[in-house]
Amino acid sequence: MKDDLNIVLAVQALRAALYGFGAVLLGDVLATHGFSTAQVGLVLTAMVAGMAVSSLMIGAIGPRLGARTLYTSLLLIMGISGLVFALTSWLPALIVAGLTGTISTDPNESGPITTVEQGIIGQASAERRLRLFGRYNAVAYLAGAAGALLAAGAHGLQHSAVPLSSQQLFLAFPVVGLATAALAARVNVADRETIGAGARTPRSRPSRRIVQLSSLFALDAFGGGFVTQAFIAYWLNYRFGAGVGLVGSVFFVLGLLQAGSSILAVRLAARFGPLRVMVFTHLPSNILLALVAFAPSLAVAIGLLVARFALSQMDVPARQAFVAGMVPPGERLGAAAYTNLSRYVARPFGPLLGGVLMRTAVGAPFFVSGFVKVIYDVIVYAR
Questions:
Q1: How does the average pLDDT of the chain come out, rounded?
Q2: Which of 287-300 are b and which e, b meaning 16 or more Cβ less than 10 Å from the residue's Cβ?
Q3: Which residues of the chain have pLDDT under 50?
Q4: Contact (CB, 8 A) for 77 and 100
Q5: Do residues 283 and 306 make contact, with C-beta atoms less than 8 angstroms apart?
């Protein structure tokens, strides 16, 4: 089991670095192709929808398959999907690649690969589980920040003696896909019993609890959808004229804070319990988020965002450990799949409404996002 967990962390590091790398390049690739804003939105929506659909499929068929087969196959699909972005500008092909759910602009994504990894980590003992989830998320944030910096350097090759376009740099996806699939093939959790067999029927009590919890996670994701990182970058420029260099530096610092908070969350949860950490770190972070709407200057807005992100992700490892601990081993893959699914079904509605809210007040998306997420915190603690 220890070897399996080390493999998961290694794959997570490579994959998160790749996603951080791709996140910097994706916008440039889509712009270079000359797509309209509607077409760009269609590609991005396909990525989010693909994570929801694939997570649902994993929850339905995952328990019938070996974790090793599932894990390896998804990583190979990730490589193939990235290869599509590297080789073609044909819109239908990009949409299909996005619908696989294996391409993400978020280093700590919650798609099908994360679902399998959470299922494997969930097999660890209760004493180790929380610590492992903390390390798992910290690795994602650190590697994702490193990948973003690497992309910025690689992008400079466009002006070198051997120029490489942003699209050609997507060839990193099949390379990393093969490397991570080779690692995943060494996972020993290959039998169905370890990760899925013996799961109870959907009508059993644990499954109903997962459905209820998933609906709450959907509320949280809906609130978060109003202020994605892309929106924050746009808003800082629109409201205060912040340049790309400053915004990029701020996001790098935010990534480091998220990584550190994931580790700190483990210690706090071990002392106070996962549920209390989920609520009492998330609640103040969401109040800070709502206050960004009223920031009178760029310095104040950045200060509030830094304080917010220092706390905002502390609930993630606690939440993952909480979900894994509330169901029997045979249901952990399904629990991870359906809770992740709920987040990606609800998330796309936030950006759509956020754009409308800005017509009323430029900071309204921050206030509404914080308000909705505070409601989520109160309900979770009350239950």
A1: 80
A2: bbbbbbbebeeeee
A3: 190-206
A4: yes
A5: no
Please state whether the predicted TM-score (pTM) of the whole model is above 0.85.
no
Task: Retrieve residue 301's tokens.
Answer: 């807005």
The H or E element spanning position 130 is helix 126-155
Angle, CA 138 vertex, CA 222 and CA 141 arms, to 5°: 60
Give the CA dihedral 134, 135, 141, 147, nearest 10 degrees.
-170
Q: Please name which of 8, 121, 104 lies closest in space to residue 51, comparing C-alpha atoms.
A: 104
Of 113, 128, 75, nearest in space to 333 by CA: 113
Tell me which DSSP letter residue 246 carries. H
- In angstroms, what is the C-alpha Rg of the chain? 20
- Residue 41 CB: number of other CB atoms within 10 A? 15
Q: How many residues does the chain have?
A: 383
Rounded CA separation 102/23 (Å): 13
Dist CA 251 CA 256 (whole Å): 9
In contact, 254 and 359? CB cutoff 8 Å: no
Question: Which amino acid makes up residue 34?
Answer: G
pLDDT given for residue 332 in this prediction: 67
CA–CA separation, 144 and 313 (whole Å): 15
Q: Is 360 helix (H, G, I), strand (E, B) or coil?
A: coil
Number of CB atoms found within 10 A of residue 90's CB: 11
Q: What is d(CA 336, CA 56) in angstroms, rounded to the nearest whole number?
A: 10
The pair of three-digit structure tokens given for residue 316, joined into one six-digit string: 């993630």
- What six digits make up the tokens of 329? 């081993």
Q: What is the pLDDT of residue 162?
A: 53
